[in-house]
User: What shape does this take?
Amino acid sequence: MLIGIDLGTTNSAVALWQNNEDGGEAVLVPNALGAALTPSAVSVLPDGNTLVGAAALERVGLKDGATATSFKRLMGTDRKQKLGKKEFSAEELSALVLMSLRDDVTAHTGTRPTEAVITVPAYFNDRQRKATRRAGELAGLTVRRLINEPTAAALAFGLQDKEEREPFLVFDLGGGTFDVSIVEMFEGIVEVRASAGDNRLGGDDFNSAIATAVRGRLDPDGLLGKIDERRAEALLLQAAERTKRGLSDGQDAEFALTVEGARLSTTVTASEFEAQAEGLIRRLRDPVVRALRDSQIDAASLSEVVLVGGATRMPLVRKAITRLFGRFPNSSVHPDHAVALGAAIQGGLIARDSGLEEIRITDVCPFTLGIETAEHSARGTVQQGLFSPIIERNTPVPVSRSGVFSTMGDGQKQIEVKIYQGEAREVSGNVHLGQLKVPVPPRPAGEVAIDVRFSYDSSGLLEVDVEVPLTGAKHNLVIIDEEDRKAASDLESRRKALAALKHHPREEATNQMLLARAERCYEEFLGDVRAVVGDRTRMFVTALDSQDPRRIADAAADLSGLLDMLEANPPL
Ligand code: AMP
Assistant: This one.
């Protein structure tokens, strides 16, 4: 079975293509808690069990929380996060989220999925894409295709009524990344004309902006300075998330948190938030302008501006979009569901499911890819470190292009082909993807040429072929950097290690969620309130041990009733 997965910074979701009498449709698969969205959070409990999703998210602010969130921002890096006794890379944490989604599908359909389409931000570079593909493989899924998030959203939007459409723009602001794509639909072809983005801009940054703005006045006595810095940061960001959501519904919102029994709170107004987020709002403009320019479409001829990604719910973002385009954006697709649904549609296309037969999709590569070269200047000096593009950004994929380069020095014995991705004139401003040493016969400078061919597949993965016409030697490089090669070689042992981790059984998900909430409340409060939370938690744990369903249900109702009351009216 082939599933479609939106592996998001904040939330992830999984969907399936289902054939029916009207052709078919993409449907979301609920998780063990019955929700379509699973928070991209992983926690390791003191007993070594791993938790994924809402229960893990509840543990973020705990003293020994051992919880990771927003790890998508570290994809493609070798940074590790320590949870309990173990260290995890971002791709391993992502694999745990994927495994949980895979299990949700198994529980829902009775069939274990083996293949997936996974979405990535259009602006994800080659390393980040490869890390995502490895995460899928670590979760035991064959990744049939990586698809750009705005392209997936465009599929979900475009296939709502299957009508032909003038070019439309997908504005996708998620938890950690921002992508813009310009898409056209005609005669069953969904064509992405251009993509641009910023993979360091998302809803999380708005949380940081709020937290920074209020910290001083919130905590004049410096209580947060007395607890572990990471925990203080987590509590501030969690509170900021609540405030940000509050500001999507009203003119002001409370910013509140409880630390060591003390309640800290202040009010944030919409205009204060707007002033604080001004710099972030300004950064939304550049990718829009670039995508319009690259697609040679002017803003006035766009038929719609389609909003995707949870962060487009912020009124200040909608206001900025309305100002930028001189019209109101279109909110007809569900901002949190569209990407997973689009991934399932792409899955249906790959499996050639009926109902999708007449649809074709073409995407573009959002970056320029090229190699480092040097040049003789007019004064006879050599300028090193220049970037020579081979595939220019926004070329339709799959694509294969080549360039010819020659030796710079007399008797040169090898050419080092250094591969970069980006738009800067000098390679120092671009992302280094890897390198390849190509031996060449020693000849006078400029007499040996090499042919460098880049092939970029539909998943946005790069393959490099170098040929030396003089000798006929050929060099091929599918996986370009050392890190990647290392990672690929131990994939199997890492997959086994992840599969061997103890996971909480699905049927216990609701109880785990309640326990995590109770632990958080216990840590937040002091004195009598804390004692009551502790008592009810103990009763709940005893009931769980008894394995008597009636006793468990009663104790769960008691505990959640208490927590609801405390959260609605926190004692001062
Ligand atoms: P996504 O990656 O698409 O799941 O988007 C998640 C982002 O949307 C996070 O930064 C959330 O804080 C943000 N978000 C979700 N709901 C709201 C809301 N009601 N108001 C403001 N931001 C929201």
Notes: Residues 8-11, 174-175, 202-204, 241, 244-245, 248, 309-311, 313-314, 336 surround adenosine monophosphate (CB under 6 Å). The CA atoms of residues 255 and 496 lie 43 Å apart. Residues 506-568 form one domain. The chain has four domains: 2-201+284-364, 203-279, 369-500, 506-568.
